[in-house]
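Narrative of activities, Objective 1.

The group set out to show that a structural description can be obtained from nothing but a protein's sequence at a throughput compatible with the screening campaign. Below is one input-output pair from the validation batch, recorded exactly as produced.
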Amino acid sequence: MSLCLFSLITKAEHLQQMQQELHLLAQKHWCSHVNKTDYQGGWDVLALRCAAKHQHAHTILQSFAIEDSEEWQDLPLLDQAPSVKDFLQHLAVSIKSVRLMRLHPGAVIKPHRDHGLCLEQGEARLHLPLQTNPELRFYVADQLVPMQEGELWYINADQMHWVENKGSTARINLVIDCEANDWLKEQLQIVAKPDMIKAALTKDHLVESSNLSMGGVFHLYRLWQKIQLKIQQQIPSSAYAGEWLLDTAVLDLCGIGLEPGMQALHQYADAVDALQWIQNRRLTKTEITQINQQLQRVAKGASAVKSPAQLLSDDQLEFWRTQGYLVIPGVLSKEQCQQSCDVIWQYLQADPAQPKSWYQSTDKMQKIMLQLFRHPALDANRQQPLIRQVYEQLWQRTDLVMSTDRVSFNPPETQSWCFPGPDLHWDVELIAPVPFATQGLVYLTDTTEQQGAFCCVPGFHLKIDDWIDSQNKNAIELQQQDWANWPVKAIAAKAGDLIIWHQALPHGASRNTANSPRIVQYINMYQATSDA
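Output recorded for this entry:
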């Protein structure tokens, strides 16, 4: 059995209800953590279950987790959090202590060990973040644990671990100590190191896509090998270009995304580390089966087209045909948009009420693009059935892959900050004929034409092939246009509205001359199979 430092176990189904209960519990009397030498700043505890002998004792004694006790008792406070209690009751483990642990902004839990608190000793500590922020860093044995709200994680507390909260909001975790039974070990998938290639990696060792060594996922091990061979310059960077759609699809179908997925696979030079990375995604067997079925169709170039739902009106379809874009109102609710904006403000460590905070220099941004791909709120937006159904009708097929893309933050221009782009452009190589494909985004804020709105040249998809042939320029030169001479249209829409456009339209964001930022999430679907 290999040593497990941490692993994702499951995801909470009723996170919103638990967070609502947390709001009420936050008003209760919390106890400062007693080990004052182990932390700096604010770190406090609210006990929900404790050793039975302390159920009527002082809160300090109830807050202790490691006890030589055979009997454990829920505290009355847990009855005020029925969703939390229900979550605990559905864990197939013998639970000992349960606490809410709050780490205040700027606080640090110093490196320490909780001796014996690990699977190997028959014990387990589980963490369920109910409130966190992008600047929270939880380390176990020098490795960052990528905890997200609503995810239940095992951590090996017997190893050196520490936490830093550099964010502007408190981190609150539900912390559960329990016995490490067979069910838990099965959930963690603790196995010996897989039988992967131990010899020096060479192009002669490149496996087939059907090799499932990387977490049971089709093609993923081959993709990791190709990246490592290119890093070692054993194969040219252009090798296996024909597999690009398959490379992209495996990362999107696993819910990782192309850019963060490629970064991770470049980072893990050891196949076992890469395996742990994909196992931390906690894909279920059913999910892996569905992913592999679609990837196998991609690899074979075989489509599985079914008749899509017909949601769009004749007028909408005619507008799409002639103009090349559509605005679909209300694909997300106001609440979903607000939750998504809250995530983005936290990521930026900015305050919507403090305009000066909108312009901090940060490596989190690439022009107006934020390197924020994954969060439960953003993931939930991608799963809205209406979004998929609209794309399927425009594509006239149901075997589409959902991209895992970034978000964007476009604040108003000031004397010291000018819109950095991207200006109008195409995201497709300008060689005729330009194939059909879509792109899309959802406004997370009400957006006027002057508010850095999405812009495009309506109808250009109908003439782009003739235009390319008439220009006598290469694809790079064609991108260099004086856009002031083009009939560019800014598209105003409400928060929650989806904008989809044909990839042949020149498009981009614009200067924000209003008073508030434009915030969007990019959401698109694409065809990964061939009709040939």
